[in-house]
Design brief:
CATH superfamily: Cytidine Deaminase, domain 2
Strand content: 15-25%
Low-confidence stretches: none
Strand order of the largest sheet: 1-3-2-4-5-6
Structural class: alpha+beta
Number of helices: 4
Order of helices and strands: EHHEEHEHEE
CATH architecture: 3-Layer(aba) Sandwich
Number of domains: 1
Largest sheet: 6 strands, mixed
Radius of gyration: 14 Å
Shape: globular
Mean pLDDT: 84
CATH class: Alpha Beta
Length: 145
């Protein structure tokens, strides 16, 4: 599923969460009980090219394959991608599986020259976490700069 976007510029993790919170809120309560995984594709200046729902999962997990994340990026010549998913439990803290998936997608992006800038997790209400901002995750190489 593709979302219509404007040429909004994303310059920091705090710019990401409201975009996805609005999308999630528009989906209704039934879909909010499932984990969603989105990819936000950016051009060389950090403007949104496209937002794509990569997969819709279950209550506490979703299956994400690098091929499904990066296929649209190649088709639209995206320079970078920001990953985002929700935690229906409401707790935005990244799980070990979230970290492992982020590592895997960073490596896939390097091979394709599509940089993974961040992986944002949406929790309840206005709660969210940026894996790029989590101190212990700096070894992943995520950085908006």
């Amino acid at each position: 599923m593709r979302m219509k976007t404007t040429k909004k510029r994303i310059g920091r993790p705090a710019d990401v969460a409201p975009v996805f919170r609005a999308i999630l809120d528009a989906e209704g309560e039934i879909d909010q009980a499932k984990e969603h995984f989105w990819a936000l594709f950016l051009d060389t200046k950090g403007h949104i090219l496209r937002i794509e729902l990569v997969t819709l999962g279950l209550l506490d997990q979703t299956m994400v394959h690098p091929r499904e994340v990066f296929r649209p990026a190649i088709g639209i010549s995206a320079k970078s991608v920001i990953l985002c998913h929700n935690h229906p439990s409401g707790d935005p803290e990244p799980s070990d599986k979230d970290i492992q998936l982020t590592r895997r997608l960073i490596e896939a992006g390097k091979l394709l020259d599509v940089r993974v800038l961040d992986h944002v997790i949406i929790g309840e209400g206005s709660e969210w976490r940026s894996i790029a901002e989590v101190e212990a995750m700096t070894s992943l190489g995520l950085d908006f700069n």
